[in-house]
Records
---
Amino acid sequence: PKITLLAGGGGGAKLAIGLAAILQPGQLSIIGNVADDQEFHGLWVSPDIDTITYSLAGLIDRSKGWGLANETSRTLEGLARLGSDDWMYLGDQDFATHIYRTELRRQGVRPSAIAQTIARALGVTANILLPSDDRMQTEVKTARGWLSFQEYFVREQCRPEVLELRIQGLEEARPTEEALAAIRDADLLILAPSNPLVSIGPILALPAIRNALEKTRATRVAVSPLIGGQTVKGPANRMLKAAGYSCSNLGVADCYRGLIDSLVIDVSDSADVAALQARGLKTLVTQTLMSSDADKACLARELLAIAGLAG
Ligand code: GDP
Ligand code: CA
């Protein structure tokens, strides 16, 4: 079978690991989020794509859930000594990825081809796809004005209240053929338990991608990023509220209205089932917290089973 996962960084990468563990090479395609991308020190940094890639390559720093294991920070220390900003942590080995990516972009290589090249070089067999080769960047409005996503997320540690979200470049951004094909040709399409607004949202914001999701013959399943009505990590709960959704599985369902057939929710939220079914959604209630590799593979198997597939 062909499985396509739409994913952000953290929650997305955890489910990607589970799916990769039970699928054959080539069966899994992952459409990542590029709206967290930003330039630092003249280099193009793509945090969510790198988190997915490093996770599937087995190179991720498991305690943090991002960055490479066994990192050092000599380069960043050197930059700080020169007076450069150092609030965005970039490790020494990680810098190599950004240097390589930036050089290929400068040569005119398509960003999606670069993502695939890096993934293959690190031994990843899943197809890592970009929703767009164009620049699209999430911005967060706070009381002190608009911040780039990384300024909000890393520099300000998600502290300011979120007043509004927007995606710079969305109007001009075109989807990649690879992403559209992966949605069109999938047997099972999964929306990872990622931030619905700033991780999955920017992918769905491309009209052609949304249209492909509406038309695909794939079984479409989302895994809620909320457990016990709360986020496991990150600002998804506050962002749901800021965007006018309820901070619950119903709010998540509303974000994905018309785009999913089933929502997978945690056992701690089983009280939501009736209201979700009233919205026309099938529900699967299960353990959705992915701590161990066994948890990840177990959730992945349950997702395949929803579509009548075996992994
Ligand atoms: P980011 O790009 O690093 O912010 O990561 P994502 O957008 O992919 O994922 C962030 C979301 O994942 C948060 O809203 C978390 O609540 C959710 N999340 C993280 N780990 C888990 C998990 O094990 N299970 C579930 N259901 N959600 C999770
Ligand atoms: Ca992210």
---
Amino acid sequence: MISLVPFYHWAEMYPDCGRNAQSPINIETQSTKYDPSLQPIKPLGYDSKLGEYFNLSNNGHTVVMSLPNYMSLEGLPKKYSAVQLHLHWGSRGTEEGSEHQLNGKTYLAELHVVHFNSESYPNFTVAKEKADGLAVLGILIEVSIAGGHSKSLVLFNFVFSAGDYVSLHSFDVHELLPKQMDKYFRYNGSLTTPPCSQTVLWTVFAQSVQLSRQWLMVAASSLLVTLQGGQQPLVGRQGMVALPV
Ligand code: SG4
Ligand code: ZN
């Protein structure tokens, strides 16, 4: 449904999509400010292998993996628990698919790990309406010439068409995060798609994760068919970004 509404019409149906804290943004690193009060992000339970099933599915819009609440983040003002992760990539299938930009550069793809404030709210649905309700980790993805790639990302190849899903017995979300996690950009923004709720505390890591080109071609061509054009990112607000050590 959402994918049929072009992004320049979103604000007509979803008023929040026309407001001033819309994500994604272009992060101009020169104009970021160091904020010494920011803590390193510490994921807890992300590498758990408790024998649960993780459901990775293609909802016709993007590829989403549900995550258990015991995965949580430390280092944010409140405790946030994981809900799901999903991937954004480009409609032309090759180079430009990230939502956030660093110094005007669009990356190949971007992974989002969505969390809700589980200290204050009972679930994601309630939290997403609250100012301090959500926290999303943004991981920028690049092509690696060496051909190295994360094992976990290869799994996205299995969900080719809308409605496809795989259940995984164990999944190491840690593998999808950059090695250097203490350098990131932080700002208050929104969900990048309707309803565009301005309730997201964003953390975009400075270090990107590498993916092989071979993987990319398979993934991109399968999603090209499914998404028929992919998602169009909105141009959002600039500034209010902080850079810790
Ligand atoms: C993508 O469309 C995901 O498929 C959505 O997840 C997600 O919605 C939406 O992006 C916005 O999230 O981190 N990019 S974002 O700001 O997480 C939500 C599902 O539809 C609410 C499950
Ligand atoms: Zn997203």
